[in-house]
Amino acid sequence: MNIQKSQEKRLQKHSRRVESQSDMALLLGERIRSYTSGNSSVKDETAIGILNSIYYCIKAYSMTKGGRVEQPDNRHLPDIRQTFEAGKDRVKACFIETQALYCGVAARKLCVPLAAYNETLDQALPEFFNTYDLEFFAHEIRCSMDYPLAFDVTGLEGVFYIRQYLERLRLEDTFCRCFPRDQILWTLSGFQKKHQLEALDAPANLFGILFDQQALSLLCGNGCPNLTLWPLQIEGLNEALFGKTPSEIRCMLAEADDQMIRAFEFQDPLLIQYIRKYEDQLAWRLLEAAAHGNISDMAFLEGDDPGQRKIAFQDGERMSDTAFVHLVEGLGQCGSTAEKVERISETIRAMSDYADLLAADCLFDDDYQSVFKAMGVRELAVLGKEIFKESLKEGPLQWLPSQREAYKKGVEALWQSYYIDYIFSVDDARRQEIVEFMERLQE
Q1: Cβ 184 vs Cβ 112: under 8 Å
Q2: HSE (CB half, 13 Å, CA atoms) of 253?
Q3: pTM for this one?
Q4: Domain edge (last residue) among 178, 213, 233
Q5: Which of 166, 201, 310, 342 makes a 20 to 30 Å CA pair with 59?
Q6: Rg (CA), the chain
Q7: CA-closest candidate to residue 119, choices 202, 207, 9
Q8: CA distances for 364 relative to 36, 338, 340, 418, angstroms
Q9: Domain total for the chain?
């Protein structure tokens, strides 16, 4: 009896399969004739495309919003033609919803010099909406989108792929919009220099770039938003992470991300979930970098560009008196401050020569600021140590505005007064790094 029932079930299942295949063949024939306006002859690849579109719509009928497919009960399979039409209605509804989603994302597009990002929003996605063929090729995406997301969209085709792509892009743009544009441009400039790109036309995910930099900045003790990192801060982070267990490092990163979420006042649970997911990805790279002591490879650092640090002291011989006089006279003939900085950087190699040059009174008001700005942390610290030698012995330097004039009272040369003005004018992170280097030289 059981054997007989089993055979009957197999026969019923086979019968349904044959009937389904027959219905599919009939539906395909109808769709081809509709495509060709009555002609049943098409190229094989066209027929395959139309068939895939039918399957796409049938699959859409049982697809949830999250992209999962709910398996129908084989005992109560709906009519294939009805399923196809109902699925096509779902695809159409998704298309309308996705168009509205695109308009919202495009209206708040980030103003950034990333070619792939701009081309995707300005050209590729409009092309998709203009060329999308719901009737016969609903599964196709007839455009090229080169901008990568932090997480690739997988397992989806057609308009369902585009919808999820835009949903994720909207979350990423919301995060990126929290940063001042000048900080974003500075970070992108660091990305460009580190990867030796002539232009920012290589596909790069802005969310990942900014998230990594901000997370490292928080681990270094900075606030949020603050993407500026200094070499000395990264050295300190390397030391802080040395010997830490993976779980301890993960906890530190999680705390930094908590701080980020609070600072930006994120409330959207989808965005918070996205951040947590990316946090897991970043944790693996941070663990790997910490194990090798090369976290600097993950960051973009202020003063990390050799082209910016034009003036650097080296262990070179002192200039001859004749060469020094020639330099001073030449600076007087320079037509611009930039030309003076260039000539100094090409000529002076010894610290003592630089001190003599500053004392020679051959620079003017604006010249001093430009010269100091062109120097690296080490060079500024060497000069500062001489100015603040006695103050450093008494304790930490004070940076209240009223303290500036107090420090100036103890100067012995005009250039030292300009140096104090400069050191008070830089941002806190830059000044802190210079002072910490001074303290190292003092030891």
Answers
A1: yes
A2: 26
A3: 0.64
A4: 178
A5: 166
A6: 33
A7: 202
A8: 81, 13, 11, 10
A9: 4
102 and 145, same domain (yes or no) = yes
Write out the two tokens for 80.
């294939």
Give the position of tokens 């050209």: 123
Burial-class residue 23 by CB neighbours within 10 Å (0-12, 13-18, 19+): middle
Predicted local distance difference test score (pLDDT) of residue 443: 59
Question: Which of the listed residues 143, 178, 213 is the one where a domain comes to its end?
Answer: 178
Q: Which residues contact 243 (CB under 8 A, 6 or more apart)?
A: none
Mean pLDDT, the chain, integer? 80
The answer for residues whose C-beta is within 8 angstroms of residue 51's C-beta and 6 or more apart is 28
Rounded CA-CA distance 31/252 in Å is 58
Whether 13 shows a pLDDT value over 80: the answer reads no
Tokens of 209: 């770039």
Question: Contact 81/71 with Cβ under 8 angstroms?
Answer: no
Task: Summarize pLDDT for 386-397 with one digit per residue, the tens.
Answer: 888 888 888 888
| DSSP 8-state class, residue 63 | B
Contacts of residue 2, Cβ cutoff 8 Å, sequence gap at least 6 = none
| Whole-Å CA distances, 204 to 34, 146, 229, 375, 443 | 43, 9, 20, 31, 44
Range of the domain at 52: 10-67+77-178
Instruction: Measure the CA–CA gap between 54 and 84, rounded to whole angstroms.
Output: 7
Q: Which residues pair with 69 in a beta bridge?
A: 63
Phi/psi for 331 (5° steps) reads -65, -35
* Nearest residue to 203 (alpha-carbon basis) of 125, 148, 145, 152: 148
Q: Residues 264, 179: contact at Cβ < 8 Å?
A: no
d(CA 126, CA 130): 6
Let me know: does 101 contact 163? Beta carbons within 8 Å.
yes
Residues 278-299: b if buried by 16+ CB within 10 A, e if exposed: bbeebbeebbebbeeeebbebb
In terms of domains, do 142 and 30 share one? yes
Q: Are 158 and 133 in contact (CB under 8 A)?
A: no
Residue 344: name the closest of 365, 366, 332 by CA.
332
| Residue 262 and residue 216 share a domain | yes
SS3 20: helix
What pLDDT sits at residue 324? Answer: 79
**Range of weakest confidence among 9-23, 45-59, 132-146:** 9-23
The residue ranking higher by pLDDT, 161 or 232, is 161
Whether residue 381 is found in the same domain as residue 439: yes
β-sheet bridge partners, residue 174? none
* Amino acid identity, position 208: G
